[in-house]
Amino acid sequence: MQGIGYWLTKRAFLGGDKEALVDGERRLTYRELNRRVNRLAGSLQALGLAHGNRCAILAYNCLEYVEVIFASAKLGLTLVPLNWRLSPAELAFNFSDSGCETLIFDAEFAEVVKQLKSQTAIKRMIVLGSKVTPEEEVYEDLLARQSDDEPTVDQTVGLDTAHIIMYTAGTTGRPKGAVLSQGASFWNAINLTLDMNFTPDDRNLSVLPMFHIGGIGLFTLPVLYMGGTVVIQRTFDPSETLRLLRKEKITLFFGVAAVFLFLIQHSDFNAEAFANVRVVMSGGAPLPVSLVRQYHEAGIVLQQGFGMSEAAPSIATLSRDLALKKAGSIGRALFHVEARVVDGDMNDLPAGAEGELVIRGPNLMQGYWNRPDATKEAFEGGWFHTGDIARMDADGDLYIVDRKKDMFISGGENVYPAEVENAIFELPQVAETAVIGIKDEKWGEVGLAFVSLKPGAQLGADDIIEFLKQRLAKYKVPRQVVFVGQLPRNAAGKVLKNKLREAYS
Questions:
Q1: Inter-CA distances, 105 with 42, 151, 158, 317, 453, Å
Q2: Phi, psi (rounded to 5 degrees) for 249
Q3: What is the pLDDT of residues 417-431, one digit of tens each?
Q4: pTM for the full model?
Q5: Which domains are assigned to the chain?
């Protein structure tokens, strides 16, 4: 089967005048998008890039980002999205580790790129916007010099062709690059289409950064596969998101828990903004049950999904009709994903028992870039080890108890921070919370809770601890509470617990 670059070729043929992308005042049909992608592919070939070469991109969300994704796919290039929230040193590691020599970047990152140049072997630079230095090529100038013709490639490009190296969020240790094939994106699109019945009439608002797999796979590529329309938001801003939901008559909206928290706390929030949205889904981090209830009270069904970079990213979703009834569950594995909850010897555990979630399916990564040992460990026993502690109920619905690495042992008892965090979230004054384990001479480890309060709210540490004592076993109750303005998060909305641990180690 042909690679995913063929999606645009076929869509341009079947209904080329259909709107594909909206980026501010810029709107592209499928025919226009395919022509620009072909011109970009020709430009990259003219610069010497060929099948298997890596190419990095450092940019905010924009239609050019989508063009780069598809041009890479047509040529068989491997794209390395760079996280603009990282430091130059961190960016340099990802760029060099992946073996990139070409960088496409937004002119707004000129200073960062200047530092990146001094730390890496960048040979080619393509700028979105005005040229900053003489050695740079201007993106639109390159496109103007090429034809609309489909690119000719020397090697076959198919679903097994490596397409994206998505570096892990780096919450612990050195980042690893998950190598995703074009087939991983294809099967992710199939899984989500089957689960949510995507159609050409759907309009998706893309707010997650495209350097994150959620920004690409939820739901940008699946919607384009189905011939729908993707509306691009440069960066997340609650007011702008609410405006676009209304203006563009959005039908599909994916965010992380923090996005939904910021939206419902915004003064412009009301259910009318979601009037046309038939799928409202969160992933990347657990949804507090209290937040699900808040949206339900506003007449909005907020569904929980679950995924990871290594799965392109979708693994499981909780059905719409169970969104409130089973709030806290991630639902069931998607159609072309198998999921098990196992013990340390890979034996299946009975309903209700807690063990590691392992998965397999055609949407999984090919492996970690240049990390054979890490790849072997991740796929031990022929299944991908998620590192998540989960349980499965009698119906087959999954619950993530916690990250394996986040669990700590207090007095010989396992404590899963997610359970404690959900209890803290029951307090209406709480905006954000995170729990970690810290060393204790008597118990080995005890809990430390970081809490951010809603504006104007008043709550003391003793109030929180007493509240938790009524709901949790004594060993699960944090011994300390630290109040913070906000929690450190990565682009996926996940709390960076390593930073919290470093501050209190």
A1: 18, 23, 27, 34, 37
A2: 50, 55
A3: 888 898 899 999 999
A4: 0.85
A5: 6-14+29-157 (3.40.50.980), 186-402 (3.40.50.12780), 408-503 (3.30.300.30)
